[in-house]
Structure formats: C-alpha cells, structure tokens
Here is the input.
Amino acid sequence: MLMLISAIAIGCGATKKSAKSAEKSASDLVKVGDMDNPPGTIMFDAANDRYTAEGTFKKWNFTDVNMTGTDLTTMTANAKIDLTSIWEHSDKLTEHLKANDYFDVEKYTTANLSIANVVAGMNNEYTADMELKMRGKTQKLPAEFKVASKKPLKIRGTASVDRSVFGIGVENEGVPDMIKVRFETLLPM
Here is the structure.
C-alpha cells in the first residue's frame, strides 16, 4: 500500500517569508479525505519464477490523523485504500489482480488501515502497529518507518502482508504468501 507529492523548490534568493509560505503550501496539499490526491504511495512487490510484480494503489487517503505537533510517538491514524485502483505495469496482471480469485474488486472495493503504538528507535527510525481490514478479514502488521523529511513531515517504510489471511490468490502457489508493502507519505499536520 502509490503517487508522490512533488517537492517544493525554493529559489536561491527566497526570503524566510516565502520559504514558510512554500512549507505551508506543501502541508496544505495533504488533505484528509482526498482519495483522488493521495498524500504518498503504497506499493507492493511479489514475485514468482516467471515475473516480478511491482504494483501500487493509485487511490487512498487518510480518514484521520491525530498527533501532538510533530511527535510521531503520539500518532494514531486511519486510512482507506481504494482496491479498485490497484495497478501493475502489466495491464493483463492488473486485470487479473482485480479478479475474484485475487482482490475481487467487484465485491470488495476498499481496505481500511489503522496505525497506532508508534515507538521511536535510533536515527529517526520508528516501529508501529498496523491493522489491515480487507475482504472481511483482519491482519495485524508490524511496520517500520523512517522520517524522510521534517518539513514537510514525510515518512517512508515497509510492512509485510500475508495474502493467505485475506484469501488473495490462494490457488497461486508460485507466489509467496508474504507480500512486501512499501509506503511513503506526507503526514497532515
């Protein structure tokens, strides 16, 4: 669990006032509830003997983010992922992933993700508990992430999803059950 928000370039002769305006503008781009303009990317990697899939969900959003200032250890958040927006480089694989033996997007259109219990480690590294609800099932996912930038506040990390928990592609024994998910996102402040 998709598209990066462009960095804001500040000219060499910019004043402090214009730099603060640029920072504010970057933060304003992150809107809770704006699925058509996600605040970052959610990507997945899966491979079998014949193909390495690298896909993304093009539409997702935070439904709420609660945090004291920029203290990530106080953060709780919820996100909604539009499963119909799954995309992979191969059009054929994209359609296959949407089919009933994989994500079954005609029946299951969204997934919900909750984030809590953020713990600080060394060198701007953190762990968090994530809970993914999809296709009528729930999986708890430990996640690791780093602070990629402080202004605007951007994080980058990974988690692993066990596709068998959700009954995704269970007939395809050539793909490992554990799918690596990478994410990078701006956090609304």
About this structure: The domain at 16-186 is CATH 2.40.128.110 (Lipocalin). The first strand starts at residue 40 and ends at 47. The two ends are 21 Å apart (CA to CA). Residues 1-29 have pLDDT under 50 and may be disordered.
